[in-house]
Amino acid sequence: MTKTTPEAALSVGWIGTGRMGAAMAERLAKAGVDLAVWNRTSAKAAPLKEHGATVSETIAGLRDRDVVFTMVSTSDDLERVLLGQDGLLAGERRPAIVVDCSTVATDASEALRKECADRGVDFLAAPVSGNGKVVRAGALSIVASGPEATYARVEHLLGYIGASVTYVGEGDIARLVKIAHNLLLGVVTQSLAEITVLAEKGGVSRHAFLSFLNDSVMGSVFTRYKSPAFVNLDYTPTFTPILLRKDFDLGLAAARRLDVPMPVTAATAQLVQASIGSGRVDEDFAILLDLQAAASGITLRPEGVFVDDGLGAADEAARS
Q1: Using CA of residue 18, residue 78, residue 124, residue 45, what is the dihedral sign?
Q2: Measured by CB atoms within 10 angstroms of the end CB, which terminus of the chain is less buried, N or C?
């Protein structure tokens, strides 16, 4: 079952071609990797054929791959694609390595790692930071944990997908790193919404305020990336409030388990819940800005100003 194929010639399978998964798999295909993909809705996987990937009609069709990546929404989804009746590990033939890039609970990851080990399959947790546009721009960040030897075998594949890859150790601690990252994502966005509304209610345009902020020591890649949505109220989803709530639930559960007080995170979690209660669950979580404006007694309007999201240079590099 376990193969000894040279790393450079590893055959790769991919499960899950949603917004993130498709962009990540595309980078592997463009790098010349021998890639086969599967998605529950096959039409979402079909565009990858243009980049040299093959589309499998079943998960079982990926069992002869050396390495299979998974990128799904929840712990239940991951368990289903790996251990379900027609799952990746249900047959006699299995890949040597599973690399999961989803954001799932640490305990679920630990359980699936054991299930993989019982079947002679190595398991690497490799959650990511970014969205589809960040992936295509070549700016994705990846954090990985699991057996160091397994990481070494697939490090070059992870390098095709992301701009940075950080190995943090054995087991499933990469899950905690990613969850902590997403807690900060929510807290920073809520804080950004509050100070932007404060500036606007005081007579400063959002464009001017965010331009100043992004060029100051307090600006960041993230605040610059989120500025177009804040200025022009474009809430095309990159990450929904439902997904952010899931990560807050996971993070606060970890905080209880480890006895770490997180008052600011807990308060932000309630504001994320309020955004879901508003019914706007299919928009980007940047709608936190609208909720803050409503609570402050003002109505926002798009400013109609072009704002650089900071990914333009990376976009050009990705196309070249």
Answers
A1: negative
A2: C
Residue 178 structure tokens: 């990613």
Question: Residue 1: inside a domain, yes or no?
Answer: no
- Distance between the two ends of the chain, CA-based, in angstroms? 39
Q: End of a domain among 154, 171, 188?
A: 171
Averaged over successive runs of 10 residues, the pLDDT of the chain (320 residues) comes to 54 95 96 96 94 96 98 94 95 96 91 97 96 89 97 97 97 95 97 98 98 97 95 95 94 96 98 97 97 97 95 52
- As a residue count, the chain comes to 320
Q: How many domains does the chain have?
A: 2
> What residue type is 119 in one-letter code?
R
Instruction: Supply the pLDDT for residue 320.
Output: 42
The pairing of beta strand 128-129 with beta strand 141-145: antiparallel
Residue 3's pLDDT is 42
CA-CA distance, 199 to 206, in Å (whole number)? Answer: 7
Q: How far is CA 14 from the centre of its chain?
A: 15
At residue 317, the pLDDT reads 42
Question: Hey, what are 229's tokens?
Answer: 């949505």
Q: Which domain holds residue 71?
A: 7-171
Q: What span, in angstroms and rounded, lies between the C-alpha atoms of 60 and 301?
A: 50
The CATH number of whichever domain residue 53 belongs to comes to: 3.40.50.720
